[in-house]
Amino acid sequence: MCAIKDVFSNRIVGYSIDSRMKAHLAVNAVEMAVAHRGHPRGVTVHSDRGSQFRSRKFTQALERHGLVGSMGRVGAAGDNAAMESFFSLLQKNVLDRRWWSSRQQLRLAIIGWLKGKYHRKRKQRGLGKMIPIQFEATMIESVALAA
């Protein structure tokens, strides 16, 4: 699985699931994130140093959408702490819960947890004990009132 997280709201805005971690997996996640966020330009996409994020396909996808690529430094574990935390929760709440008889079954469980629990029920301390969707709605309302 490759996931794109909006670190402002802690919402996973793009993801892709496949049997292998290849460039197309990362590109598909970026494409979904761009579509969900209304084709923003100039946004920084931070990643680790995996080959899928250094691939020509991935860097071309970033350029095509006007996104800025950023990679963590070698040995700097804190650079990817936000995603490490997300994948730890995914492991604990979905992957380790039971034995999955098929990839399709696991895929549906991941998507169900992400959309049903992570975004809509899991209150997050960094968001003032709000859920990501509620936090985003509050911020949009605040910006509208300030304008």
TrEMBL record:
PROSITE patterns: INTEGRASE (PS50994). InterPro entries: Integrase_cat-core (IPR001584), RNaseH-like_sf (IPR012337), RNaseH_sf (IPR036397), Transposase_IS3/IS150/IS904 (IPR050900). Residues 1-140 form the Integrase catalytic domain. Signal peptide: none annotated. Pfam families: rve. It comes from the Bacteria. Gene3D superfamilies: Ribonuclease H-like superfamily/Ribonuclease H (3.30.420.10). This is Integrase catalytic domain-containing protein. It comes from Glutamicibacter nicotianae (Arthrobacter nicotianae).
